[in-house]
Amino acid sequence: MSLTQLRENGASKPVRPVTAQTLLEMKQAGHAITALTAYDYPTARLVDQAGIDFILVGDSVGMAVLGYESTLPVTMDEMLHHTRAVARGVERAFLVADMPFGSYHSSAEEALRNATRFIKEAGAHAVKIEGGRRRADLVRQMTEAEISVVAHIGLTPQSIHRMSGYRVQGRSLEAIEGLYEDALALEAAGAVAIVLEGIPREVATEITARCVVPTIGIGAGPACDGQILVFHDLFNLTFSSPAKFVRRYADGAAFFRDALERYREDVTARTFPNDDESYHLSREVRTQLETSVEDNKDPLELLASLEPAGRA
Predict the structure, then answer these.
(1) Which residue(s) pair with 37 in the sheet?
(2) Which are the catalytic amino acids?
(3) Which of 66, 192, 244, 281 fits a disulfide with 285 by CB distance 3.0 to 4.6 angstroms?
(4) Distance from CA of residue 275 to its chain's centroid?
(5) Residues 6+ apart with CB under 8 A from 193
(6) Separation between Cα atoms, residue 200 and residue 170, nearest integer Å
(7) Alpha-carbon distances, residue 64 vs 42, 220, 230, 253, 284 (angstroms)
(8) End-to-end CA distance of the chain
(9) What whole-number distance in Å separates Cα of residue 55 and Cα of residue 149?
(10) Where in the chain is the domain with CATH 3.20.20.60?
(11) CATH superfamily ID and name for 3-247
(12) Got the DSSP string for 260-305?
């Protein structure tokens, strides 16, 4: 049930915010975790009110909203800007912010400083970083600094050049064992959840079974503890061929395109705005204006002499 439905039904108890502990309890109870990206206030409101458990302000904003060809150009300032906007629209969901490429790669000190900004300045509940066991020490340091971390392994978009494109990971026995080691090392370091992207279903199933913390899948099959998609993919707003794992639930592009074309046609035909969509002078001022015209007085001088209260 969505937050809106709960309010309309007069629910007496406030809706409990989702926390890292909530996600863990959902995994333990076998309840699927729902996750989605959001990049601005209105979509964050919609996603949160729909009852989605986990909202990610992904660096995918670069491709979905900012027009970049990959996530690599996205900056800290851009991510903080979008995270602040999303945080204003979230009441219930667990809010996670992606740390962009370059924000945690140079040193642990810089990474901690940047992660702190997402929590302190932007209102995120956790940060997400990409990479396997080589990030375990950083995850441990962030956890010790009271910063919750969501890890991300498998197909990691920030490694697009090293991976030679967006390729499914974990197809060989060696690669599979590496993913198992990555997941367990990140969990041991304190990660509160692990995103599994672009890996075979069978591998994700085994990782999910081995891990205590929840796994969130994207292109990793149905056995993960939760699933995440990019908001714009869900509504056909990415204007490109979708990945295999994307299911489009509505054609937002067609919806908006139709409305835009009808708006253009109405303006061109001068049927918008109509009389009901226009403001009018009060009857008193209209009478005075008509009288001034009959007496050959300047209507503009008359309007300028009227008290503001006389205008409608």
Answers:
(1) 56
(2) 197
(3) 281
(4) 39
(5) 20, 23, 54, 150, 151, 213, 214, 215, 216, 226
(6) 7
(7) 15, 21, 8, 13, 53
(8) 44
(9) 14
(10) 3-247
(11) Phosphoenolpyruvate-binding domains (3.20.20.60)
(12) HHHHHHHHHTT-SS-GGGS----HHHHHHHHHHHHTT--HHHHHHH
26-35, 153-162, 290-299: segment of lowest average pLDDT = 290-299
For the stretch 2-12, pLDDT in tens is: 555 555 554 44
- C-alpha count within 13 angstroms, C-beta hemisphere, residue 232: 18
> Cβ(60)–Cβ(71) under 8 Å?
yes
Q: How high is the pLDDT of residue 310?
A: 46
pTM score = 0.88
Percentage of the chain lying above the pLDDT 70 cut: 90
- Quick one: which of 129, 199, 194, 152 has its CA closest to 171? 199
Tokens 């910063």 -> residue = 147
Q: Write out pLDDT tens, residues 60-83.
A: 999 999 999 999 999 999 999 999
